Amino acid sequence: MVTPGDAPFLANMALPLEVGSRTQRILVVDDDEPMRRTLLRLLAAPDRAVEETDSVEGTLRMLAAQSYDLILLDYRLPDGDGLAVLDWLSEHERGELVVMLSGEDAIDAAIGALRRGADDFVRKPYRLSQLNRAVDNALLKTRLQRSNREMGQRLQESERLHRYLVESSPDLIFTLDPAGRFTYVNPRIEGLLGFARADLEGEAFSSIVSAEDTARIVQLFENPLQPARTAHSLELRLASRKVGSGPPTVSLNTEPMYGRGDERNGARFMGTYGVARDISDRKRAEEIIAFQAYHDQLTRLPNRALFRDRLDLAIAQTDRRKGSLAVLFIDVDRFKLVNDTYGHSQGDQLLRSIANRLRQTLRRGDTLARVGGDEFLALLPDITHPEDVQAICQKILDALRAPFRLQHGEFSATVSIGIAMFQKDGESADMLTQHADIAMYQAKRSGKNGFCFFDSSLNHNYRERISLENDLRKAIDRGELELFYQAQVSIAKRRVVGTEALLRWRHPAHGLLGPDTFIPLAEEAGLISGISNWVIDAACAQLRDWRDIGFSELRMSVNLSPRDFEHGEIVETVRRSIAHHRLDAASLDLEITESLMMQDAGSVRGKVQALREAGVGVAIDDFGTGYSALAYLQKFPVSSLKIDRGFVRDLNGKSSPIIAAITGIARGFGLQVVAEGVEHQGQIEHLRSLGCDTLQGYLFSKPVPAEEAESLFLEIPSGLPA
Ligand code: C2E
Ligand code: CA
Ligand code: CA
What residue owns the CA closest to ligand 1's atom 10? Predict the structure, then answer.
């Protein structure tokens, strides 16, 4: 087993091989003092360290302390002979070379010494040149021996390093023989595929390749007839023996291996060297990205792109079979209310639950996709009769009947479904989807929570809507918006005390349009905040003019959309307008709806609060028609309530308990009250007696252009009783 700890210190590998450059240590052993001196002098050289001793015992002590390259050893010593030293060296497996110096002339002594490990034998008395040669020879020998040893070591280390690199590689590394059988495979095979290395010895490479890719691999590496051996680079799936893990995908690179000396072309094919890198993770990531590109994150349903793909395919098949298919456009009713009221996370939760129920009502071959905020498309292939589609739509409506659980309680969601049939309503994916969309709008118009088949006459309305939206985008720049003003009259003061700005659009083709025809469109198309900004500024400018010409107490009411509180800087816009037109903030009232108060998002309340702190009045419009809960009144620091004209209308001749309740609430909370839609003198007395002094309605004036409104400010309002 190789571990990282085995990795040799790489710097070692970089050292150049230098033979014998280091100081050589020589030990001179002789009991004859003058002889020793002579030897020391003779041997002295800058790259040598020469030491001396005079006995066997002294020699062994010095050898125990360190090693030498060469020992010049006297045969006879006072405490024994040099042979004892030779024995000691061989016993301790020492590498010192020994040149024996001896006065013995017997050949036996020389042979004995050489046998027991001496490298040379010099007989005393010796000639200088003789000794020098022996020493030089011995030293050269030690040098060569040492460098051989070092070389061997380096080779070993280098081999260990390379083995380590190969064996611990995160890639699968292997070699094959010319027939494509494993000759080597690194241990990665075990972790990657669960094969034991031993099992693969002599096995064909194709035995670790998945079935789909086997043929390719056999052709490349196990084909004895294939003459040209070249490098290859390919992606393939391997066969895994490991349970619970899919077959890994690898990117494989191979190189042919050539040996020297071929019969003919100078290189002999020896087999293949290969490296396979596991790219399964990258593959999986690619698959996830592909999934995300074709699916909706929130519901994990197919998205528009994938739906389109499937629809194209289904159309082609259906066309061939001469069959029929249906496209359903499913839109959640009042979904915006959920989002506005409970917040986006609850909205998301609801969408997921709706998606689940829709999925469950559809059949296996059907495709359900989410294509927009609260819009789904369903593809129903294999439809024989329109009645079948009808039945499925009914099933969908039924499936949604049970309420959904949200954080705040239960919520009943309904949908409107538009149906387009191939081929009757269109032959292309685009046409079918668009017509299903148009039919869906028709279903909405006929009261929602239902379905509607496409009818070519619908097309016309839809196109109108689209072109109106386009016109509206340009309306502000083209100066087509106008404000009309409707007077608010004080019974006690017997004069006009305020006026409500009501928006009109002077459409070049359709004439003067009331806000009900285009405000919802503006809200849906995201155009409302630009419109609101224009309205606020225009109303403030008008009020400035009126105040400048003497109507110094006149107040102005402006309507805002709940959308204005969602994003954008409504507070900033209002503040800026007031400052720009040098108005007293208290002269402005902003009318908001009850539904806005339902949004418990702190930011809405924060904005209302900020407006109030800026000194601006905030009125709740159409009070009493919505979800009015007293709790909201406590939370929202509004300044007045506008009684909806529906209640005022009911007042006809008799008193109204609802208005009594509203005025009671207003008194309790210290709020102003304005009654809207006053059309008959008969209503005035009732309202007055209930404590409602400020009135607005056709009785006094319809909403009219500024100049007309202005002329009323000076008169005693015509509708008041004498
Ligand atoms: P609202 O705020 O409730 O405005 C009062 C509506 O009642 C006005 O309709 C007005 O013409 C009508 N009305 C007033 N007195 C009487 C009456 O005695 N009898 C009857 N039958 N109706 C009366 P209009 O001008 O068509 O406005 C409709 C709605 O459009 C307004 O309802 C308001 O919610 C919205 N709106 C108007 N201007 C704007 C605006 O600048 N921005 C926004 N976001 N909404 C606006
Ligand atoms: Ca209003
Ligand atoms: Ca109103």
Answer: 703
